From TrEMBL:
Annotated Gene Ontology cellular component terms: plasma membrane
Top-level lineage group: Bacteria
Annotated transmembrane regions: 34-55
Keywords from the UniProt entry: Membrane, Transmembrane, Transmembrane helix
Species classification: Bacteria, Pseudomonadati, Planctomycetota, Planctomycetia, Pirellulales
InterPro entries, alphabetized: AsmA-related (IPR052894)
Any GO BP: regulation of protein targeting to membrane
Organism: Novipirellula aureliae
Protein name: Uncharacterized protein
Length: 1038
C-alpha cells in the first residue's frame, strides 16, 4: 500500500509538472517575439517546476496521500474536481541561475539577467483531471526589489498572477525602470540623470486552449537606451550605434497566441511621446507619434510630429499607411519646413561636419507595393542656400519623381510656381537630372544619365556588381562618365581656414573597368581618366589652369599633370608599378617617386587671398617675390623639396635677392635642413623642425634656430612695424629661437655696432629679445628687456616693450631709460642733423617714454629728469647770444657748477617745467618747451651775472628794504639797478642748433618767478619784507 501510494504521488506530481511545463513552453514559444512579456511569463510560469533554488515551504506529499484515499464519485453523479492545493513559496530566487536552467530546456532568453525574485503562489492541482490543463489553478504574487536586464534596471516590481479556467491573468503589475549605465545621484552622477521611469499595466493569456493574448501598458519617462540595447542583444546587431531618449505613453496589444507571429492577427495601438531621442550623440529630437494602430495587418499613423529642443527651425509632419501582409501596399506623406540637412545627415549616421549646410523645405508623397518591388514617389524641394562640400547649389525650387527604375529632377515651371511664364530663372544652377537605373539581386545598373547643372552637362552610365556575382571573374564593374563645361563655385573654407569663393570650369571623362571582386587591386583594373580645369578663379582673380591624366594598363598606374597657377608653371608626374597582389593601400604606401615642380609662383598673387586676420599688418598685402620648388613624394607621408625665393620684398623695399631652402616632410613633421640667403643686405640662416599636426595652433608647433649677420636694422624692422623702421638705421646681428604653437614665440639676443635712433648715434648696443605673435588674432609683442649701449660719449641703459595696437596702424610703447655722462652738445648736434659740435657738456638722468597707437612723435608721452655737471656755459643753447645784453662779463669762460632740468613729454613737445643753472658768476632759471620734430624752442629765461656773494649785493638789498613798502618786482628791479643791470629777462626761440634771444622787461615777470629768483638765485631772505601790490617805486625814508 505504501509503495502504491508513493508511486501514485510521484506520478501525479510528474504529470502535473510536465503538463504545466508543456503548456507554458508552447505558449512561450509563440509569444517570444514580444520579448518583454515573454520574460515575465518565463519567470512566472516556471516557478512550479520545483527544481530551482529557494525556500519551498509546504508538505504537499502528505496532503496528496490523504486526498487519494477518498472514495470515487458514484456513477451518474457530475464529476466534481478534487484539488490538491499547496503553497509554493520561493524567496530570493536567483534569476541568473533560473535563466541558465531554463536555457537548458529551450526557454532561456539570450540576455544578461541579475537579481532575485520572491514568489508567493497557491497552486491547485486537479487530482482527478491531471491531463486537463484548463483545470489547474494558480493564484499569487511575484515581487522583486531589483532586477537587471542588460543595462535596464527594474526596481520595486510586483504583479498578481491568477491562472483559472486556462486563462493566466497578470493584474496590477508595476515597477520602476532605470538606466543602470547612468550613475545615480548618490554615487556622484548628474542630478536627475538616473531618475526612474515607471510602468504599470495588466496582461491576460488564454493558455488552454491557446487563444488570445492581451497587454495594456502605461509607461512614464522610460529610458530608451537600455530598452534599445536589449533589442540589439536579441537581434545580435554588432554595428548599431547608441540610441537614447525618454518615452512616455500608452500601448495596447491583442492577438491570438496560436498566431502571435503573424502580424495580420494583431490588434494594437500606441500613443507615445519620445523626448530627446538621439542617435550616437546627434541632435536630439522630440517625437509625438499620435495614435499608431495595427489592425487587420495594416499599420496606420495619422500624424507623426518631429521637432528638436535644440533646433527651433526643425519640424516635420508625416503620415503613413502600410499593409504588413500580402502585396504590402503602402502610402506615405511627409512635409517639412526649414529642415536642417546637416541634422538629417547626422541622424542617418553620416558625419556631415560642415560638408552639408542649408535648410530644405520638403513635400513628399510615396506609394507602391513592396512585395512586388513596385513603388513611386514624387514631391517638391525648396532651398535658398543649399551647400554640399562647399559647393553652392543655387536656388532649389524643384519637383522630383522617383520610382523603381527612373529618377527625374527639374525646376518647378513658372506656371507651377504661380509666377509669370516670362519670369527669369535667376540663381537656378540645377537645371535637370534624368537617369534610369535597375536594382537587381546581383547588380546595380545606371544608364542614360543626363544632368544639366553648373552651366554644363554630365552624362554617363555604370554597372556595380553585388550579391552572388560580386566575385564572379566573368563579370566586370564598369564606370563611364563624361562632363563638359561644368562650372561649380566652391567656398574654400571647406578646404582652408578661410573663405574665398573658388570657381572653375572643368571638362573630362572617366572610363574604368574593374573585374568582379578586384576593387582593392589596382593592377587588375584598366582605365583612364582625363580632367581639364581652366578659368580657375579665387574671388574675382584668375589664378590659372590645370590638366591631369590618370591611367592604368594592368601593370602600372600613371599620374601626370601640368598647368599654370599664380603666374608660375606647375607639374606633377609619377609611374607606379603594381603587381597583382598589391592593394591600393600597398600602392600608396610603397616608396614610389612622385616628382613635382613649380616655377616662379608670384607671392603677391598668393597673399591676396589670405584673410586680414592672418596677417601681422595690412602692409603684408604688399609682399612680393617669386617662389620656385622641385620636390619628390616618396610616400604619402614622406616628401622632400628644394625651394628658392627670388627678390623677396615688402612694398618697394627688396629685402632679399635670393633665399634657398632644403626641407623634408615626414608624417606631417617638416624639417628645415637648410635655409640660407641674403636678407636686408646681410645674411640669414635657419634650421629647425615644425610639427604641422600638433594642434597647438593654426600653424602647428616646433622650433627654429635663426642666425642673422649684418642685416639692415630699418629693413628688418619693416616686418614688425613701419613706424619703428622709420626711426632706426644701421646694421645688426643676432641669434633667435622661434617656437610655436599659438602664439609663436621668439627669444634671443641682438648686437649692433653702429646704429642711429631718431638721428642719434647709438653704438656698441646689445640686448636680449622677447617677442610673440598670434596667428589667429594678428597681434604681436616685441620686447628689449636689457638694452645697453653708448651714445654721445656716455652710457645708455634701458628696457622697452612694443605692442601691436588695436587701431589700424601704429604701435604701443612702454619704456624706461637711464643715461650717464652723455655729451648734450653732441646730442643736440645729432638731433639737429649735424655730426659734430664745438660745445660740450655732460648730463645724466632718466627718461620714461610711452604711448598708444604711436604713428609719430606727437603720440609719445613721458617724463624726464636730468642733472648738468661740468659744462661750458657757451654749450647751453642761447647763452652765447645773451652776451650782448650782459655787458662786459664774458660767458665763454664760465663753467656751470650745478644744473638740473625736469619736465614732461606730450603732444610732440618736451615741456620744461624747471631749468636751473648755477655757478658763482652766473644764475639761470627757465621754463618752456621744445618741439620734438624740428627742435624749435619757446623758452622764457632769467639770466643773472655778477658776484652774488659780494657786499655790493647786500648794500643793494638794504637800500631796497629801507623803503616803506615794496612789491617783489620792484625789489628785483631796484637790486638790478644797483648791480648795473646785470639781470635780464629773455625769450629763447629758434632751434636748438640756432637759437636767438628777445629781451623782455623785468617788469613783466610773474611774482612767483621773482620770489623764486630772489630766493634761489640771489640768496636773499625775503620773509621779513612787507610787499605792496603796487609796482611803483615808493620814496625812501629820510
Amino acid at each position: 500500500m505504501t509503495i502504491e501510494t508513493h508511486s501514485f504521488t510521484f506520478s501525479m506530481r510528474f504529470k502535473a509538472v510536465m503538463t504545466i511545463q508543456s503548456t507554458l513552453k508552447t505558449a512561450v514559444y509563440r509569444v517570444r517575439t514580444i520579448w518583454g512579456l515573454g520574460i515575465w511569463l518565463f519567470l512566472l510560469g516556471t516557478f512550479g517546476i520545483g527544481t530551482l533554488g529557494g525556500a519551498r515551504i509546504a508538505n504537499a506529499q502528505e496532503q496528496a496521500e490523504s486526498l487519494v484515499k477518498a472514495a470515487p464519485p458514484a456513477n451518474g453523479e457530475a464529476k466534481k474536481i478534487r484539488y490538491w492545493t499547496s503553497q509554493w513559496n520561493f524567496d530570493e530566487i536567483d534569476v541568473k541561475k533560473l535563466n541558465h536552467r531554463l536555457d537548458r530546456i529551450g526557454l532561456g532568453v539570450p540576455i544578461d539577467l541579475n537579481g532575485n525574485v520572491t514568489v508567493r503562489f497557491e497552486v491547485s492541482v486537479p487530482l482527478n483531471a491531471l491531463t486537463d490543463a484548463k483545470k489547474y489553478r494558480i493564484d499569487g504574487l511575484v515581487s522583486a526589489n531589483r532586477l537587471r536586464f542588460e543595462k535596464l534596471l527594474l526596481s520595486d516590481f510586483q504583479a498578481t498572477v491568477e491562472l483559472d479556467e486556462g486563462v493566466m491573468r497578470i493584474d496590477r503589475f508595476s515597477g520602476n525602470l532605470i538606466d543602470a549605465s547612468v550613475p545615480s545621484q548618490s554615487s556622484g552622477g548628474a542630478s536627475g540623470s538616473s531618475r526612474p521611469g515607471s510602468v504599470v499595466g495588466d496582461a491576460a493569456i488564454e493558455l488552454s486552449p491557446l487563444k488570445d493574448l492581451q497587454i495594456n501598458l502605461d509607461v512614464e519617462s522610460i529610458p530608451v537606451q537600455p530598452l534599445y540595447d536589449l533589442l540589439i542583444v536579441f537581434s545580435q546587431d554588432k554595428k548599431s550605434e547608441p540610441l537614447s531618449g525618454i518615452a512616455s505613453g500608452k500601448i495596447q496589444f491583442a492577438g491570438p497566441v496560436e498566431n502571435v507571429g503573424e502580424i495580420a492577427s494583431w490588434n494594437a495601438t500606441a500613443n507615445l511621446q519620445v523626448n530627446r531621442l538621439s542617435r550616437a550623440g546627434s541632435l536630439p529630437l522630440n517625437i509625438r507619434t499620435g495614435v499608431v494602430s495595427i489592425s487587420g495587418g495594416v499599420l496606420a499613423a495619422e500624424r507623426l510630429e518631429v521637432e528638436s529642443p535644440q533646433a527651433a527651425g526643425l519640424s516635420a509632419v508625416a503620415s503613413a499607411r502600410v499593409e504588413m501582409v500580402g502585396d504590402q501596399a503602402f502610402r506615405i506623406a511627409a512635409r517639412s519646413n526649414d529642415l536642417p540637412l546637416g541634422v538629417v545627415a547626422d541622424l542617418v549616421g553620416f558625419s556631415a561636419n560642415s560638408t552639408i549646410e542649408g535648410e530644405l523645405d520638403l513635400d513628399l508623397r510615396a506609394d507602391g507595393k513592396l512585395a512586388r518591388s513596385q513603388w513611386a514617389s514624387s514631391g517638391r524641394l525648396a532651398s535658398p542656400n543649399l551647400r554640399i562640400a562647399g559647393v553652392d547649389l543655387g536656388l532649389i525650387e524643384h519637383a522630383f519623381t522617383l520610382d523603381e527604375t527612373h529618377i527625374e529632377i527639374h525646376p518647378i515651371s513658372q506656371g507651377e510656381a504661380g509666377l509669370p511664364m516670362d519670369a527669369p530663372e535667376n540663381g537656378v544652377i540645377l537645371k535637370r537630372v534624368l537617369a534610369e537605373y535597375n536594382v537587381a539581386n546581383d547588380r546595380f545598373e545606371l544608364s542614360n544619365l543626363v544632368a544639366d547643372l553648373f552651366q554644363g552637362q554630365v552624362t554617363g552610365s555604370a554597372t556595380i556588381l553585388k550579391g552572388a556575382v560580386v566575385d564572379d571573374p566573368a563579370e566586370t564593374n564598369q564606370i563611364n562618365l563624361a562632363w563638359k563645361d561644368v562650372s561649380p563655385i566652391f567656398h574654400s573654407d571647406a578646404l582652408f581656414p578661410f573663405d574665398v569663393l573658388l570657381s572653375l570650369r572643368t571638362s573630362g571623362q572617366v572610363d574604368w573597368k574593374v573585374p568582379a571582386g578586384q576593387w582593392r587591386f589596382p593592377a587588375k583594373q584598366i582605365g583612364e581618366a582625363t580632367i581639364e580645369i581652366d578659368s580657375i578663379k579665387l574671388g574675382e582673380e584668375s589664378i590659372g589652369n590645370l590638366t591631369a591624366l590618370v591611367s592604368s594598363d594592368g601593370s602600372s598606374m600613371e599620374l601626370g599633370g601640368q598647368g599654370m597657377l599664380f603666374g608660375g608653371k606647375v607639374s606633377v608626374r609619377t609611374v607606379a608599378p603594381a603587381d597583382t597582389k598589391m592593394s591600393w593601400q600597398d600602392l600608396f604606401g610603397k616608396p614610389t617617386a612622385i616628382d613635382f615642380s613649380a616655377a616662379s609662383i608670384e607671392l603677391n598673387r598668393l597673399v591676396t587671398f589670405v584673410p586680414d586676420r592672418y596677417l601681422p599688418s595690412l602692409r603684408y598685402r604688399e609682399l612680393r617675390g617669386r617662389l620656385s620648388l622641385d620636390g619628390t613624394v616618396e610616400t604619402p607621408s614622406e616628401v622632400s623639396a628644394k625651394l628658392r625665393l627670388d627678390r623677396l620684398g615688402l612694398g618697394p623695399v627688396v629685402l632679399s635677392r635670393q633665399i634657398d631652402a632644403v626641407v623634408r616632410l615626414s608624417d606631417r613633421v617638416m624639417r628645415i635642413d637648410r635655409l640660407t640667403g641674403n636678407f636686408a643686405d646681410g645674411r640669414i640662416d635657419v634650421v629647425g623642425r615644425w610639427d604641422l599636426q600638433a594642434g597647438a595652433g593654426p600653424l602647428g608647433e616646433g622650433n627654429l634656430d635663426v642666425r642673422f649677420e649684418a642685416v639692415d636694422a630699418s629693413q628688418s624692422m619693416l616686418w614688425v612695424s613701419e613706424t619703428i623702421a622709420s626711426y632706426v638705421e644701421g646694421t645688426m646681428s643676432g641669434n633667435l629661437s622661434v617656437s610655436g604653437g599659438e602664439p609663436l614665440r621668439v627669444r634671443g639676443s641682438v648686437q649692433a655696432s653702429d646704429t642711429m635712433v631718431t638721428n642719434i648715434a647709438v653704438r656698441d648696443v646689445h640686448s636680449g629679445i622677447l617677442a610673440a605673435y598670434s596667428v589667429q588674432s594678428g597681434r604681436w609683442d616685441f620686447e628689449l628687456p636689457s638694452l645697453v649701449g653708448a651714445t654721445a660719449g656716455g652710457r645708455l641703459k634701458g628696457a622697452a616693450r612694443f605692442h601691436s595696437t588695436s587701431r589700424a596702424s601704429g604701435f604701443d610703447l612702454q619704456s624706461q631709460w637711464s643715461f650717464d655722462r652723455v655729451d648734450f652738445g653732441q646730442l643736440i648736434a645729432q638731433a639737429s642733423g649735424s655730426r659734430s659740435s664745438t660745445n660740450h657738456g655732460q648730463i645724466r638722468g632718466s627718461l620714461v617714454l610711452a604711448g598708444e597707437g604711436i604713428k609719430g612723435l606727437n603720440d609719445l608721452k613721458g617724463s624726464f629728469e636730468t642733472e648738468l655737471d661740468g659744462s661750458q656755459a657757451s654749450a647751453i643753447p642761447g647763452l652765447s647770444e645773451a652776451q650782448r645784453f650782459l655787458g662786459v662779463v664774458p660767458l665763454a669762460g664760465i663753467r656751470i657748477d650745478d644744473g638740473r632740468m625736469n619736465g614732461t613729454i606730450a603732444g610732440g613737445r618736451a615741456s620744461i617745467q624747471e631749468l636751473v643753472l648755477s655757478s658763482s658768476p652766473l644764475k639761470v632759471i627757465a621754463d618752456g618747451s621744445v618741439q620734438l620734430a624740428n627742435q624749435r624752442m619757446e623758452i622764457a629765461a632769467v639770466i643773472s651775472t655778477g658776484n652774488f656773494e659780494s657786499n655790493q649785493l647786500a648794500d643793494a638789498y638794504l637800500q631796497a628794504i629801507a623803503l616803506d613798502y615794496v612789491s617783489p618786482i620792484s625789489l628785483l628791479i631796484r637790486i638790478n639797478q644797483l648791480l648795473s643791470n646785470r639781470t635780464i629777462y629773455v625769450d629763447v626761440v629758434g632751434t636748438l642748433s640756432d637759437p636767438s634771444l628777445r629781451l623782455k622787461p623785468l617788469s613783466t615777470l610773474r611774482d612767483e618767478a621773482v620770489r623764486y629768483l630772489l630766493g634761489e638765485v640771489f640768496g636773499l631772505n625775503c620773509s621779513g619784507i612787507l610787499f605792496s601790490d603796487s609796482d611803483d617805486m615808493p620814496s625812501v625814508k629820510p
